[in-house]
Specification:
- The chain is flat, with a radius of gyration of 33 Å.
- The protein is built from two helices and no strands.
- The termini are far apart.
Length: 89
């Protein structure tokens, strides 16, 4: 019977600890949510203000890199063995 009481006490202490941790996590989530909302709101305002300048920057980046695309596939050419010499020697 003594073991049951200690187990019950340990379980209750554990549950209290988990409840306080859960509360702290919920508070942190609320703070982070507010920060994310502020950041996204600030970013959207900056994007609306600087939309014209970003178009110009994109054109400049295209010109700097040549505006060429990397091909998806490329055929590699290897020399063929004609049977005359030792290819490893």
């Amino acid at each position: 019977m003594g073991d049951e009481k200690t187990l019950t006490a340990k379980l209750e202490a554990f549950m209290e600890q988990m409840a306080t941790r859960q509360q702290a996590l919920e508070e942190q989530m609320a703070i982070l949510s507010l920060l994310i909302q502020k950041i996204t709101k600030g970013d959207s305002e900056k994007n609306n203000e600087g939309q014209r300048s970003s178009r110009g920057r994109k054109r400049n980046l295209d010109l700097q890199h040549g505006g060429c695309m990397v091909p998806r596939y490329s055929k590699m050419e290897f020399p063929t063995y004609d049977g005359v010499g030792d290819p490893l020697g």
